[in-house]
Amino acid sequence: MAVSTTTIPARKGWSAHLVAGTNIRLIDVEGGQAADLWAYNPADHDEFLSAQHSRVHMGQAYPVAGWTFVTNQRRPILEFTHDASPGRHDCLAAACDSFRYQLLGADPDHASCEDTLIAEAAKHNIRVARAPQPFNVFANFHVDTDGRFELDKCLTEPGDSATFTLLMDAVVVISACPQDIVGFQPGGPTSMAVEILDAPGVSP
Ligand SMILES: [Zn+2]
What pLDDT digit, counting tens, does each position of 145-172 carry? Predict the structure, then answer.
């Protein structure tokens, strides 16, 4: 039973300062939606969940249940404890940003996961200039056998979820990706939900 459940509206973000041991579940409410996830050390903002360090740590290119994500100081920060989805996730593609949308011909004020990160991190006095490589939950991106990098459609069904355990205190930021030009989110940007499953201590 969740301690709290928060809806992340389509194209918006969520963040919380969580303590080690907290379990959170990210739910794709309507299906076909991806989320960008970051985690920062609240005591040292230069330390954060690092996709490239985690790939080396785990010896795999794609996150799966059982993964331990490490920081750029190679310390465990987040465990991917349970996957109730088709199992496709990415940590190779950059977050969408205003530059990406300019290149795609979108309006200058188009929302982006990078802007969401910057705004959410600021709530915790973390200044972010550019987004680190995110953990792209439910993103079905992959390298084909011929080396092409495909942004394939998300495979999630309504209610699919991924559950994580914090391995150190962290500010976690999640962005419901607003990508509506490149069609990897069937049905377009939709809302997501975050459940705090138990809370040794939560300070919003
Ligand atoms: Zn995005």
Answer: 999 999 999 999 999 999 999 999 999 9
By DSSP bridging, strand 192-198 and strand 170-176 are: unpaired
User: Which amino acid is present at 163?
Assistant: T
Range of the domain at 80: 4-203
Residues with CB under 5 A from ligand 1 (ion): 96, 113, 177, 179
Q: If you measure from the C-alpha of residue 112 to the centroid of ligand 1, how many angstroms do you get, rounded to a whole number?
A: 6
Number of structural domains in the chain: 1
pLDDT in tens, 7-39: 999 999 999 999 999 999 999 999 999 999 999
Q: What is the pLDDT of residue 1?
A: 66
For ligand 1, the distance from its centroid to the CA atom of residue 16, given in whole angstroms, is: 19
